[in-house]
Amino acid sequence: MTLLEGIILGLVQGLTEFLPVSSSGHLAILSKLFGLQEGNLFYSVMLHFSTLIAVIIYFRRDIIRLFFSFFSLIKKLVNKQERKFDLYERMVLLIVIATIPTVIIGLTFSDQFEFLYTDLKFVGYALILTGILLLLSEKIGKRNLDLSNISFPKAMLIGVFQGLAIAPGISRSGSTIVGALFVGLNREEAARFSFLLSIPAILGATLLETLSMSTANIVVNANLFIGMAAAFTAGILSIGVLMNLIKKGKLYYFSIYVFALGLFTIFFL
């Protein structure tokens, strides 16, 4: 992989991991255009790791509080104390509950969807579906709840929406935000929960990719670290951009883009 390809893939991974435009769809398209092969799996793993670090740093205050709340929650459950949880203890439960259906969907259907990464026509149609979901997000749900009063079944439904992103071309952040808006979360809380929910999802996917990787495919060089830096920087920027746009109700901007990219992929690639 050349330095230019590494930088481009890093920037695309960082931008599209959190913007609702499907990182998997973009990387499938770029892999086709660049002629990249499975030997670049280690590079993909490290780019995912870079975006994970980006979201952890951006939401570091929330994550530090969630970290300590996790242990206080465990203590309450083990000691069978009165089940009155504070906001962050409740958020820990919401994230765990929402992650369960995502894990089930991922482990059950990952093999069935893996071959679709090379089917660019499918990727194109999935991108169009992402655009439709983003348009619907402006019309559905009352959007008057926050994370202190969302129910556990609604959190599980959000996890189902996140699980849809197993299909290349379906945006993880887009489908999760749409699911959160659908169950009634306000825009800012929907985006915040989507990003926090991405941490176990990205971490789990990274671990699975690492376990499936042969040591013969591990190549550490300057191109790798430059690509990781590009992914991290783009990831931080994309989180800020999405948080700003979702507050203004501008998700449909991204729907226009994915519609255009989907049609281009179907008819020209």
Can you give keywords for this protein?
269 residues, mainly alpha, 11 helices, globular
Written account of the structure:
The structure is a single chain. It is globular and about 60 Å long. The chain has helices at residues 3-18, 23-34, 41-58, 60-78, 87-114, 120-137, 152-163, 172-182, 187-211, 222-247, 252-268. Helix 3 runs antiparallel to helix 9 (187-211), helix 3 packs across helix 10 and helix 7 (152-163) packs antiparallel against helix 8 (172-182). It has eleven helices and no strands. By secondary structure, it is mostly helical.
Summed up, the domain count is: 1
Biggest sheet record? none
- SS content category: mainly alpha
Based on CA atoms alone, the radius of gyration comes out at: 18 Å
Could you give the distance between the termini?
A: 22 Å
Quantity of strands, as a count: 0
Mean pLDDT: 85
Query: Per DSSP, what share of the residues sits in E-state strands of 2 or more residues?
Result: under 5%
- Note the run of SSEs as H and E: HHHHHHHHHHH
Task: Return residue spans where pLDDT drops below 50 for at least 5 consecutive residues.
Answer: none
Shape: globular
Helix content: over 70%
Tally of helical runs: 11
Brief characterization of the structure:
The protein has 269 residues and is mainly α.
Give a topology summary.
Blueprint: H1 3-18, H2 23-34, H3 41-58, H4 60-78, H5 87-114, H6 120-137, H7 152-163, H8 172-182, H9 187-211, H10 222-247, H11 252-268
Helix pairs in contact: 1-2, 1-3, 1-10, 3-9, 3-10, 4-5, 5-7, 5-9, 6-8, 6-11, 7-8, 8-9, 9-10
